[in-house]
UniProtKB/TrEMBL annotation:
It comes from Streptomyces thinghirensis. The chain crosses the membrane at residues 220-242. Residues 310-321 have a biased composition (Basic and acidic residues). Residues 299-309 have a biased composition (Gly residues). This is Hydrogenase expression protein. Keywords: Membrane, Transmembrane, Transmembrane helix. Residues 257-271 have a biased composition (Low complexity). Residues 257-327 are annotated as: Disordered. InterPro entries: ChW (IPR006637). Pfam families: ChW.
């Protein structure tokens, strides 16, 4: 072999998001002038640069190149020792390849993000929000979830109570909220609450939500029952106060008739005549007459009061606007600072799904339903740019990319039935990196990594295979 190499140092340590350098010394031990090409290989090769990429040496001379390692602060930069190597190919002897090896240790970091889906739930007896916990670090995270609210109005059922999340993955926690007291009558009440993601040694990550508790029976029904009860009591009181007093004279007439028929003690006395029934029967008092109530007269003085007859037709209510990715990302940005991305998928035979954010899953898995279009919006990245590739048409818009600012909807692909589904897409952000994860038919989740800062990258099916895109997860 006509080449001597030395890595100085052979082992190095670097923090994700920063960089470190290693010097590679090369000596030409042959007897001819040779040019050497340097190419990094291994798992850390995407984050490694060699300066200069080629080196020309005379026999017996030594040259130096620098290896710069700059792993991103993403889950792709796995914590721990990562072996690397540099392939050195001589121009004069291309078969005599030398591959010096070294070791790069990437320090661990943790970053957890949590989101309630949806942030507001409604119900009379319970609400069921989902808590999405994303591990954006490069090491496994173990966390527990608990709930609390001001006033202790709610009880919480959390399944599972503890989660273990691999780097770059998300866990979904099912939560059931139950009010401690039921609202039988009346209007709805809002119950603010928070779910805390607790990890050992760090401050808990709290996510706030709202439970809107509805009344069991509507308020108008309670008012109706109250008015009906008041009217019933008033009617009973009036009946008792004005009940007719009816007397009967039958007993008095019988007594008077008996005394008239009795024999007189004096024989000479003639028979007494019976009193006339008309004279003895007392009059029955009549019930007091109620004054006739007057009908209310309208302000116009003439007609009774119907509604506006012959008025104009009522205006039809406008249909509700769809909830897009821009709507969702503005809500998330209002609650949490930093960079955020929200997105939704147009799935064949289903239409537009609801938007999800920051690594949650959009589309379907295992249902053979392709994604035809994507709606993406960002916050904190100074805009997003992208283009969609279709299974049949390829790049439908050619070199014309879609580009929008923060908080504005961007659309990739087409929902038209005549256009084939997406097979992939390109993305870049003006600030920071974007890390999509795509699920492709017959391939599953591809784990394609992240873009470089302010640079674009393609994500999805290999262009030569033309496989339909079925689900995505995106973080920034």
């Amino acid at each position: 072999m006509s080449l001597w190499t030395s890595l100085e140092p052979a082992s190095a340590t670097v923090d994700p998001g920063s960089s470190t350098r290693v010097r590679l010394r090369v000596r030409n031990t042959g007897d001819v002038v040779d040019e050497y090409r340097f190419e990094p290989v291994g798992d850390v090769a995407p984050w490694t640069t060699v300066e200069p990429p080629t080196l020309r040496l005379y026999p017996g001379t030594t040259g130096t190149v620098e290896l710069t390692f700059a792993p991103p602060r993403t889950p792709d930069a796995a914590a721990g020792p990562n072996p690397y190597a540099v392939r050195i190919t001589p121009t004069e002897h291309p078969d005599a390849v030398t591959v010096p090896e070294g070791n790069l240790t990437i320090t661990p970091f943790t970053e957890v993000r949590a989101e309630l889906v949806p942030p507001t739930v409604k119900g009379r007896f319970r609400g069921r929000p989902r808590l999405a916990v994303d591990n954006l670090g490069n090491t496994k995270v173990t966390a527990s979830v608990s709930g609390s609210d001001t006033g202790d109005h709610l009880s919480y059922e959390i399944r599972p109570g503890n989660v273990q999340i691999e780097p770059g993955r998300a866990a979904f926690v099912e939560t059931t909220l139950k009010p401690r007291q039921i609202i039988w009558f009346g209007s709805k009440e809002e119950r603010p609450y928070s779910l805390a993601v607790r990890r050992s040694g760090v401050e808990p990550t709290e996510v706030e939500g709202t439970y809107v508790q509805r009344g069991f029976l509507p308020g108008w029904l309670a008012a109706f029952f109250g008015i009906a009860l008041a009217l019933t009591i008033a009617f009973v009181m009036i009946w008792i106060a004005y009940k007719p007093q009816v007397r009967t004279s039958a007993t008095d007439q019988i007594e008077q008739a008996g005394s008239a028929l009795a024999p007189s003690p004096s024989a000479s006395a003639g028979p007494e005549t019976l009193p006339s029934a008309a004279e003895s029967a007392p009059e029955v008092p009549k019930a007091p007459e109620q004054p006739a109530s007057e009908e209310p007269k309208g302000d116009g003085g003439g007609g009774g009061g119907g509604g506006d007859k012959g008025g104009g037709e009522s205006k039809k209510a406008d249909p509700p606007k769809p909830r897009t990715a821009a709507t969702a990302v503005k809500e998330v940005a209002a609650r949490s600072e930093g960079r955020h991305v929200c997105y939704r998928a147009y799935v064949a035979d289903q239409g537009w799904q609801d938007p999800v954010c920051d690594g949650a899953e959009a589309g379907t898995v295992g249902k053979n339903l392709p994604i035809k279009a994507l709606n993406i919006a960002v916050a904190g990245t100074e805009g997003v740019t992208g283009n969609g590739a279709h299974v049949v048409e390829g790049w439908l818009t050619g070199s014309k990319w879609a580009s929008t600012a923060d908080g504005v909807d961007m659309y990739l692909g087409s929902s038209k039935e005549a256009v084939s589904p997406l097979q992939g897409f390109t993305l870049k952000t003006s600030r920071g990196t974007v890390c999509p994860n795509t699920h492709v038919k017959d391939k599953g989740w591809l784990e394609q990594g992240c873009t470089k800062s302010a640079d674009w990258r393609y994500f999805g099916s290999p262009m030569d295979q033309k496989l339909q895109l079925e689900a995505v997860r995106i973080t920034v």
